[in-house]
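Here is one chain, start to finish.
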Amino acid sequence: MRNTPARHASTTGALASLTDIESDRVGDNWMITFKPQSILQLTITGFLAVSATLVVALVLTAKKLDGLSVTSQSIVSTTTEAMAYSRILIEQASAMERNTLQFEITGGQEILDVYNDRRKRLIQAVNSLRTISKSDELNNTLGQLLHHDALLYTAMSEQRSRPQADAIQDSLLSIAYRASENISDWNALRLVELGDDTERTKTLLTYQAIGFVGCALLMAAIFTALITRPLLQLERAIKLIGDGGLQEPIQVAGPKDLVNLGERLEWLRLRMEALEQRRSLFLRHISHELKTPLASMQE
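Its structure:
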C-alpha cells in the first residue's frame, strides 16, 4: 500500500505518454479519410481541386458580368426608345397646334382627318412610353397629356371658340414638354443606377476574387503539405539509417506507394538492426575468447 502513490504517478505518466503517442499518430494520419493510391494521383487531385476552384470563380464572374451587360443593354435600349418617343410627342403636339390653327381658318374635314392621324401617333407614343416607363412622375404626366388631348379633340369636334381651344392646346404643349423633361430625368436616374450597380459589381467581384484566390492558395498549401510530408518523412528515415539510428521505427503516412516504400525501409532497418546485434554479439564473443588466453598467459 505504501507504493500506491508511486504506482499512481507511474500510471499517470504512462497515460500521458500514450496520449502523446496517439496525438502523433493522429497528426501523421490526418489523411485518414483521403487515401490516394499514389503520389501522382495526389498531385493530379490537387491540381484538379485548385483548377476547379478557379473555374468556379471564372464562371461566377462571367455570369455576373453577363447580367451587368444585359442590364446595360436594356437601359441603353429603353433610353433610346424613350428619347425617340419624347421627340415624337413634341413633334406631334406642335403639328397638332398647326392643325388647330388651320382648322379654325378653313374648318375643313381634311384638316380634322390629318389632326386625327397625328393624334393617333401621339397616343401610340404615349402608350409605348407607359409600357417601358418605371417612373410614376412620367406616367402621371403622360396621363395628363392624354386627358388634355381628349379635351382638345372634343373642342375641335364641337367647333368651340378659339380662345378655349388655344388654352387647351397651350396646356397640351406644356405637358408634352414636361413629359420630355421627365423622360430626360428618368434616363439620367437610370444611368446613375447603372453606375451604382457597376460599382457594386466591381466591389463584389473584387471580394469574390480575393475569396476564391485565397481558397485556391489554401488548397494548394494543403496538397503541397500532403505531397511533401511523406517525402520529408522518407528523407528523415534514410538519414537516420545512414547515421546509424536503427532504434527508431520508420513510419510514413501518405499515398500508398510512399507508404509501401516506408514499409520497405522499415524492413531494411529491422534487417540492419538484426545484423548490428549479431555483429555486437560476435565482437563480444571474440573479445571474451581473446581475453581468456591472454589471462592464462599473464598467469
